[in-house]
Write a structure and sequence with these properties.
The structure is a single chain. Helices cover 31% and strands 24% of the residues. It has helices spanning 7-13, 20-34, 116-137, 154-168, 198-201, and strands at 36-42, 59-63, 68-72, 78-85, 88-92, 97-101, 141-147, 185-190. The strands form three sheets. Strands 2-1-6 form a three-stranded antiparallel sheet.
């Protein structure tokens, strides 16, 4: 048999650009970060990708997971895989792609990475850290209340709410000096350093 036509040698040799260890390491990293890995099986027919292959694959290539999309087909099987690289689009017959993935309860066509379970906590701690930085850099004070002696109309209320949202919302805009007309009085809501330790309170 020609070199590379035996299934065992294909998995052992991977492809001309990288060895077995490097290829499987990239596939493993893709599964851990994206929840799935897409391996292209290269056959003797070369550039032909949309037709059903014949024979045994010669090479294995790991495709970037974020650039591959399975197209749902009948019988719970993909109709094809679409690979996008910039403006280039390549369609693969499902038998030309080895798609290995972690189970995903919300989407059977895509994998769910193990890191997704910790993503919410990581994002929360990052936002808390940004808030803490602005909080302690500006005297360890939280926002307060704007009190008006007279009742605002709906338009006035909406206008002031929009100003607050656009100019003073978020850690990068925190603790700015505000200027409002109409006899507004600002009542500060101060807290202690211990109360402001949000990261410590969340643990």
């Amino acid at each position: 048999k020609p070199k590379g036509t035996d299934p065992a040698s294909v998995f052992a040799g991977a492809n001309p650009a990288e060895g077995r260890t490097a290829m499987w390491m990239r596939a493993h990293i893709s599964r851990e970060l994206l929840g799935e890995a897409f391996l292209q099986l290269e056959y003797l027919d070369g550039d032909v990708t949309e037709t059903e292959p014949t024979g045994t694959p010669r090479e294995l290539w790991v495709l970037p997971g974020h650039q591959v999309n399975p197209v749902p087909g009948p019988n719970r099987l993909p109709a094809m895989y679409v690979y996008r690289d910039g403006g280039k689009i390549i369609k693969f017959h499902p038998k030309r792609i080895l798609h290995t993935q972690y189970p995903n309860p919300s989407d059977r066509w895509r994998g769910l990475p193990p890191l997704s379970a910790a993503r919410v906590q990581a994002e929360t701690e990052n936002k808390v850290g940004l808030h803490n930085r602005a909080f302690f850099a500006n005297g360890a004070t939280l926002s307060g209340f704007l009190l008006y002696k007279e009742l605002l109309t709906d338009d006035q209320f909406a206008q002031r709410l929009k100003i607050l949202k656009d100019e003073y919302t978020g850690p990068k805009r925190a603790h700015r000096i505000g200027l409002f007309d109409g006899g507004a009085e600002f009542h500060e809501n101060s807290v202690t350093a211990r109360q402001g330790d949000f990261l410590g309170l969340s643990q």
